[in-house]
Queue: 3 jobs
Job 1
Amino acid sequence: MLSLHILGGFSMEIKIQPNARYAVLGSGSWATAIVKLLTANLANVGWYVREQEFVDSIASNGRNPQFLTEVEFDVSRLTLYADVNEAVRSSDVLIVVIPSAFVEVWMQGLTEDLKDKFIVSAVKGILPESNKTVLEYMHDAFGAEFVNMGIVTGPCHAEEVALKRLSYLTFACKDVDNSRAVARVFAGQFLRPVFSVDIHGTEYAAVLKNIYAVAAGVCHGLGFGDNFQAVLVSNAHVEINRFLQKVFPEQREPAHSAYLGDLLVTCYSQFSRNRTFGNMIGKGYRVKDAQLEMSMVAEGYYATKCMHDLNATYKVELPIAEAMYRILYEGANAQKEIAALTEKLS
């Protein structure tokens, strides 16, 4: 379960206990991989998949019919939900793993009080309608306290986690004991935990790196080679750190895996949806055509506009991100934009 401790004012800090009940909200590839990890460590895992037909399919076949279909579940360890309130009511820790563009739709109808729930976001995206991260949305919409929320991030493509390839996950909570508690239920032979208290920095780094992975894909589609890609990603790393230090100034090590590592894997991996999306744009696809051809969401598309809008306030120098905005949202010619960008990189 959970225990509560009074902070300043009326805030209550939650301490995750060893017998806490966990539920995963979401049914995509990363949600599926996380459920598989949790069922190896917990006797029961709640799973909110929203559509009753998918609840029935998973219960009958022990597999997600849409994503990572080769992954098999011991259904005796699952409690499946099509109703978000039932999932929340029956759980202490909620792990949100819904593509950012659909978070608000999936949470529609949520009336359960979240004051005694600990919320963990494994979403590497930003909500396109409100320009809020998942933690910001949960705070503003449902009154959840930042001290009672956390992040799971790092270079962790769902496909490689499902294939049991060694991965390092960063668990970020304001209280490192809560980070360790969440890490314990993810534990496995092929997972290494990294701990952080930088919930805002890690969350925004995970949003920003998607934009730069789209840029890497665009440049690959245009025919740029490895030499230029290295310069592009190096400058992208500088842009991410510049933004974080301006908006969330804190002592952090930008070369750690939650920042640089996640950027690298998203820019270079064959599993990167954002790189794939960008590659199609570089090869001449229109944005809508590229989105239709892809079977999964490229978070970088939404992140590009959200960060452009947010940066109108912060005014951080982000030339790569701004070039992506002009290409994706203003119809600028990708070849010309990248040619102009090459004059700004070092």
Note: The mean pLDDT is 94.
Job 2
Amino acid sequence: MNAHSNLTHLAQRIDLAAAFRWTVKLNLHEAVANHFSLAVSDDGTRFLMNPNGRHFARIKASDLLEIDANDPATMTRPDAPDPTAWGLHGSIHRALPHARCVMHVHSIHATVLASLADSRLPAIDQNTAMFHNRHVVDDHYGGMAFADEAARCVALLDDPKITTMIMGNHGVLIIGQTVAETFNRLTYFERAAETYIRALQTGRPLRVLPEAVAEKTAQEWEAYPGFAEAHLKELKALLDAEGSDYAA
């Protein structure tokens, strides 16, 4: 890590690199696709993101690109990001200062949910309740996430209360204030989607929580002290114990 002490935003880079590595362990990744980004400027327009074509299992803190969402020359850089990542993440960081961290994956259960005619996630347990009144469904998939797709996604995420966008026929996008908060939310969403899908597979009626209980539980998740931070801290400790080079 000392060799990279001149890197800017080192702590943020290390957190984001750890999230990439653990995403692989949970099998939420897909080939060399999907992207995570993290704003590092006060206005949110400068952000870190994974380099084009790099597998999540190989990403290190020093590999992360620092990108200016307002720089029209971004795609002419020698290390230009993936064009769909620039389209989606650049648009979000340019327009939504509250979206400090953005994680987009095509994980299995989230994508199954996104493929249903009704992709909403009902509050049927404590984990699904985390997303009650805090997710939105994009029902108008029109192809890969270039400019038009990105503009629609930005509009759907305008409300700061929305933490999760179920991207119909595509996957899921999670936003948060920190890597810890966003990655914790991502892992819980995948688990919540799996619970819901398995419940549907029984063919039996669902026990859906009443509105008041679901909203109360969602608020309790938001106020739970230090949970996401403890989660990421433990994941980094496990990576360190393995001798992982994610922080390099």
Note: The radius of gyration is 18 Å.
Job 3
Amino acid sequence: MQNTHLDVLIIGAGISGISAAYYLQKDCPTKRYAILEGRPTLGGTWDLFKYPGIRSDSDMYTLGFAFKPWTNPKAIADGPAIMRYLHETVDEFDIRKHIQFNKMVINATWSSEEALWTLEVQDKSTQKSQTYTCNFLSMCSGYYNYEKGYTPDFKGIEAFQGKIIHPQKWPEDLNYDNQKIVVIGSGATAVTIVPEMAKTAAHVTMLQRSPTYVASGPDVDKLAVFTNKILPNKLAYSINRWRKILMQRFMFNIARKYPKTMKKMLIGGIEKELGKEFDIKTHFTPKYNPWDQRLCLVPNGDLFESIKNNKASVVTDHIESFTAKGIQLKSGKELEADIIITATGLNLKLLGGINFVVDGKTVDLSKTVSYRAMMFSDIPNLVLAFGYTNASWTLKCDLSNQYVCRLINYMDKNGYSKCMPIQNDPNLELEDWLDFSSGYIRRAIDTLPKQGTKKPWKLDQNYLVDRKLIGNAALNDGVLEFSTPEKVGKQKAVAVGSKQ
């Protein structure tokens, strides 16, 4: 069995993993690292999803990397454009040679005696097992199960005689021209698929149990385009990035402090698009407050245009059962369909579903407490890159990946080989790790770690705060415990002596 040792192993070659590799090369240039990617290609989400219209739901000035300017005029970019950007990045910074594809991590075992992670890895191309060891694990594996999306247990689903497709498993050869389509769902995936399929389908119906907040905005930011014309790329990108960061934060704060005002503004925008004669109260007025779930962006109002052109429609109802011809609703109405798309969400899967063992004890993540929303109590030498729910994913991941480098350099400077958050405050109150009502989070909430009600155990979901909390805060804060096991200390002393 092959055994490979590296200083740092990065798990996942999507946006988070590419970011981790860049900062590791920049800030820890002497460290040997590899990226283990379970799939045959890089890109993560942006390579996995192939459904019509796949695009970002955040602007690319903040979803893109801080170190690699986004120069495409479209701030809301499609999947292929994002993939080109990622490939450009790994080639520009010579990261590709560090990526090992088809390497699925099954188990990760930590030994405090040796201050070492040992990973059991399956090579999916050969079906053989390999062993990797490393001093530090950088987890960039995303947040959901790549193998299977979430589909509710619909009554009578086996009776339907047409095709049923989950967006996560989209057949690239699907021909839906002149077909009757029903898309079940009202989130970001549904509002993306509906207007795109409506271009050639006979009709597309978006069937939702309850509405989601939807906002229209241009896919091209004219101010950003102008800035790019008159200023150097890096300066223009920095200005546009900060403009977007501050605007995101401002809108989120308004939504939390003045939810009625934000709700009125969002509903007013839809009235302007569809007209007051449309039943906006039923189909586009959620019962929850803005940003209790993620806001859906509709570039250039494409969803509303397809509704106005009678190419698409919205039905708000509950499913009684599937039938041979379509879906029977609880209201008594039947929706006929040739194809049903179940845009019903994801299955959350933290830390890549890897089985973690620390000093012989299997880790139950739900029994841990999250430290700075990146590390977990009693799990050593591991940092998770997990993005924001209320802003662009990459903003938080970039901070986490820079923190990893700062942590590794601090440990080297002080001769430490182990770091681990210790939660020993008996008065620390615990709460859910994510304060978000989206279905995929609520379904998995009992499996997730907890967070505390005060720092550094508390997640603010605020990039401006986290820049200080993560970027500049003291590492030796009395919570993060540093040590050097006796065996490792002796090995280091021998190594130093042999160099003299």
Note: The chain has 14 helices and 25 strands.
